[in-house]
Amino acid sequence: MNQSHHDAAAAKQALLARRKSLFWRIHFWAALIASPFTLAAALTGILYIFTPQIEAQLYGALEHVAPSGVMRPLDDSVAAARAAAPAGWALHSVVPAYAAGDTVKATFSPPAKAAEPAAEHAGHNHGMAAPVPAPKRAFGAPSQAITVYVNPYTAEAVGSLVNQERFGSWAKKLHSSLLQGDGWRWMIELAASWLMVMLITGIALWWPRGTQKALPQAGAKGRIAWKQWHAFIGVVLSVMSAIILSTGLTWSKYAGGQIRMATDSLGQAAPKVPRDVQSIAADGAAPLSWQAVWDATRRQAPDGKLQLVAPGGPQGVWSASSADRSQPEKRFDLLLDAYSGQALYYSGWDKQTAFGKATAIGIPFHRGEFGWWNQALLLVFGVGVLFSLVSGWVMFFKRRQPGSLGLPRLLPGAWKSGSLTAWATAAVLLGAMPLLALSALAVVAVEIVLHRRSMAVGSQ
Q: Which residues form a coiled coil (predicted)?
């Protein structure tokens, strides 16, 4: 009986050793692929964290004014914004002043057939713009849009700015695509995909078993110390890592499409604002003014900064939504009749799905929009990621023998040692992240070549 137990224990230890060598190998490949892009993402992400402070210095004179008396009707500010906008540009949306020192922000979209020439004059505030019909209701500022900032107390334009030229827009593009355009977003998505693999395999390698310790040991030096702190920091930041990676992947191009398809099939899609709602013009009824719509919205929606979009025609409806992502619980969509101000559709926080609520909280957290504590956590996370990258490569070069590739040793039978849970997790990750699946095929091809080469060398 004792011999049987001893043999079983030895077999289990051998299985765990093969499995550990497999995890080490996959962990290495994940680090090799993800490291360059992750380094760029971490550095640009740390820069992006401080967007509120940087933009406050750059655009404070546009976004804030000294309160003086009573605010004039919103229609006066909208008229001033129209006069200051480039001729022919269409008013897209308006964010009324919420706090006493806020300006009114009116966003304009360029003419469809002359977007490029008009954009050249976007930074100027001169020229009278003839009123143009309001565009059809749309969500999100269009490409090349400009925002005109108006003092709500004097109804005077204080300046304008091309939205894409804001520091926040530049920093976001730098972080998401390294300023290479949407066609290059795959770089960061590829890094995030392999970082998820690196996180999972890293936790599996760290998990205490037998004499293996969970915490760094005092007195450890050299590669052992680097290894202990590398694992410990990675695990400490694992929850943050999972949140940042998951939220980043939700708006990525390929993995994001897979996630949206899955949420739709599971009934977790966000409520869709209807497109076929119309206003009813009673005999002699006049369309509501901007001020009247603003007042009606404040009566029917949560208190907070909001955005208004005018009707697209006589039967169109007013659209109102939250303009403050730092208060996700006040997120709403409201459609108003253009003549009576009656709510034709309303969807608030209580109508959001569980996935919708998770992303409404997770995405602003990813961007550091919840205030200084959020920024501090992201800064710690970014520095931790940089330490993980540096310490991982320090260990690699300390382990690597001269003249060798430095790949972690793969024990015989390692690829067959994975548990059912491990292979199921791999299947989910590969299915959810197409770029991971494609690049994994390349890794498998390299592994096959290396295996055949080692077999050929061994047979000589």
A: none
